[in-house]
From TrEMBL:
Entries under Gene3D superfamilies matching the protein: 1.10.287.130, Histidine kinase-like ATPase, C-terminal domain
GO MF term (any one): ATP binding
Residue ranges annotated for the HAMP domain, each copy included: 180-232
Residue stretches spanning the membrane: 12-38, 156-179
Annotated compartments: Cell inner membrane
Cross-referenced InterPro entries: 2C_sensor_his_kinase, HAMP_dom, HATPase_C_sf, HATPase_dom, His_kinase_dom, HisK_dim/P_dom, HisK_dim/P_sf, Sig_transdc_His_kin-like_C
SMART domains reported in the protein's UniProt record: HAMP, HATPase_c, HisKA
Nucleotide-binding among keywords: yes
Catalytic activity entry: ATP + protein L-histidine = ADP + protein N-phospho-L-histidine
Organism field: Caballeronia pedi
Histidine kinase domain boundaries: 240-439
Superkingdom of the organism of origin: Bacteria
Any single GO CC term annotated in Swiss-Prot or TrEMBL for this entry: plasma membrane
Protein name, entry field: histidine kinase
């Protein structure tokens, strides 16, 4: 069981991060111990600093007096652990240890002497005694015999290992706690994603943890909301289409079943046309992903004027008030579908239609105004939902399945704008579309 458990633990993010922390702590410990034994590392006090200061003081004193008096000073300064003499040809010792290296490094750094200064040991069996120091002094050499009488403090003690162990354990514990703070939200995000695959009604997850995890959770919640809304809309669409298609199909079936030699062609064509409108409306809603279309510059003023002229030529009382030239950076096909749906709604429910457009405070504002019956105040927010149809005053439209304003709202939100429906006095409806104006257009105007 245990051999299988270890790979499973290290396959998780928590296990991998803890393994990295443990390896880093072990590498740091080994490096720290290696530096303690590295020959080039600074020597531990007190060795060799006390001996170095005595030798340096003797050298400075000898440099400051005539050569004839140096012998008296050397004779008076003899100690049991430090003897010095001036000689022309000293007998050079050849032994080398860590102690000789430490003392030589200290003397070189204080005396600023590079050539001729050496520290060696003459007794390889006991390198802490009989150290030979050779320092050039004028035309002779100052030979000093000393020993290491300072006691080096213990490098490895119980407090040292206890502090080092506490450091490693503390780093590992804090790392585990910090990693768990990151892994917790990530684990919950994974669990919610798995649950969402089985049930789209899962509650949104809490956006917590580091910034990247919060962003991922926010994106997941938005994705979950969009998918749930899309699934609900499509379910309602199927129910609405199934219900609305039943009536024309029943009429067509009755005409075919009755014992008549001649079928009323006009009625069949009317029912086929009605079914085609229903299916086209549903397909338009299913393919209303405005974000898939590339953006480009569109003359919104010219488009509105053209649409109004086309409807006017068919006998509709409609007029446009606004600039002839109104460039707007958008998705052209989606914007044309948006305007067409609004105009057809206004024309169907009213006898007069007014379209206005303009740019106000970095916003493109388009209003479609009709003189129809309007919408009940408590239903203004409901009509933008898919497949919502109101009372008979506004629902006797052949082929309508309640998707027109829903498609408009989707396109407006895809452009970062807002759709507002306002009832007019004494009657009528204002459909107001506010779209953010691009910076280039604001500068151009």
């Amino acid at each position: 069981m245990r051999p299988r458990l270890m790979p499973r633990v290290f396959s998780t993010t928590l296990g991998q991060i803890l393994a990295i922390v443990a390896c880093s702590s072990a590498a740091t410990l080994l490096l720290f111990i290696a530096l303690l034994f590295y020959p080039g590392a600074p020597p531990n006090p007190p060795w060799p600093w006390q001996t170095s200061y005595r030798i340096v003081a003797l050298v400075d004193m000898l440099k400051a007096m005539p050569d004839a008096e140096r012998a008296h000073v050397l004779s008076a300064g003899q100690r049991s652990n430090l003897m010095a003499k001036l000689t022309g040809k000293p007998s050079i010792c050849v032994g080398s240890t860590l102690d000789t290296h430490d003392l030589e490094s200290a003397l070189r750094s204080i005396l600023r002497i590079d050539a001729g200064l050496t520290v060696r040991t003459c007794d390889a069996r006991d390198p802490t005694h009989d150290l030979q120091v050779l320092i050039p002094l004028d035309d002779r050499t100052l030979e000093i015999r000393t020993d290491r009488n300072e006691r080096e403090p213990d490098r490895f003690t119980v407090p040292f290992f206890a502090a080092l162990a506490f450091l490693c354990v503390g780093v590992a514990a804090l790392s585990a706690w910090a990693v768990s703070r990151v892994i917790g939200p990530l684990r919950r995000l994974s669990e919610n994603a798995d649950a969402f695959g089985r049930d789209i009604t899962v509650a949104p997850i809490v956006e917590e943890g580091p910034l990247e995890i919060r962003r991922a959770a926010h994106a997941f919640n938005r994705m979950q909301e969009r998918i749930a809304r899309s699934m609900q809309s499509r379910t309602r669409m199927l129910a609405a289409i199934s219900h609305d298609l039943r009536t024309p199909l029943t009429r067509m079936r009755l005409q075919l079943d009755v014992e008549k030699k001649e079928i009323e062609r006009a009625k069949l064509l009317r029912d086929v046309d009605l079914m085609q409108k229903m299916v086209s409306s549903a397909l338009a809603f299913l393919t209303s992903d405005a974000g898939a279309e590339a953006k480009e510059w569109l003359d919104l003023g010219a488009l509105l004027e053209t649409l109004c002229d086309e409807y006017a030529e068919s006998g509709v009382e409609i007029r446009y008030e606004g600039p002839d030239y109104l460039p707007f950076f958008c998705r052209p096909e989606s914007i044309q579908r948006l305007l067409t749906n609004l105009l057809e709604n206004a024309i169907h429910y009213g006898t007069q239609t007014l379209v206005t457009a303009g740019a106000i405070e970095r916003t493109v504002l388009v209003e479609v105004i009709d003189n129809g019956p309007g919408i009940p105040a408590d239903r203004l927010q409901d009509v933008v939902e898919p497949f919502v149809r109101l009372d008979p005053a506004r629902s006797k439209r052949p082929g309508s399945v309640g998707l027109g304003l829903s498609i408009v709202d989707d396109i407006v939100r895809a452009h970062g704008g807002t759709l507002t429906l306002i009832n007019r006095k004494p009657s009528g409806l204002i459909a107001r579309v506010a779209l953010p104006l691009a910076g280039d257009l604001a500068t151009r105007n």
